[in-house]
Amino acid sequence: MIQLLDFYADWCGPCQVMKPVFKEIEKDYEGKVEFKQVDVETDGTQAAQFGVMSIPTFVILKEGKEVSRKIGAMPKDVLKSWLDANL
Fold first, then answer.
1. Which parts of the sequence belong to the Thioredoxin domain (predicted)?
2. How far, rounded to the nearest angstrom, does the alpha carbon of residue 65 sit from its chain's CA centroid?
3. What percent of the chain has a predicted confidence (pLDDT) above 70?
């Protein structure tokens, strides 16, 4: 199973736009993708560990290793295509 990390902050406009999209696709990929949201304000250590400089940043992990990354808000179909390509 792959893991999708969503680095966000509550004050970030594009992050708020992605929040309902993230929740919606979480249901679509149940059992295939583990979803984790990381608030850069409260978990700056993990954000620094991944070198996150802009938010929202989405990171796909396979077996604990980063395999792909996207930065910025995107349409639901783009996010789903990206996930499908990494399953």
1. 1-87
2. 14
3. 100
